[in-house]
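A student in our group prepared the protein record below, which I am reviewing. Thanks in advance; the entry in question is below.
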Amino acid sequence: MTRQEIEVVFSRMREALVRLDADALASLHTETCVVDSPAGGTHSGRAAIANVYRGWFAAFPDFKVLSDELVIEGDPFHSHNQLSRYGPRDDMTCL
């Protein structure tokens, strides 16, 4: 992927997170993608990944990305995020 393509994908991701749009987020994954999450387990395919996002948003309806930084250096790239999520305990913040 080019730098511009990576930036477009991350821009779409940020926009979908603001809207809490599970389907838009899942569309950024390939149909054969496998997501291995310590919080959500292992899930394969867009439909399963969308369900993980839906579950996360249902559990934390006030989920927000407080800040993010996209670092692109050559082939690898990283996204650093500070997330805020509120649910049964309003004092929980995920960094």
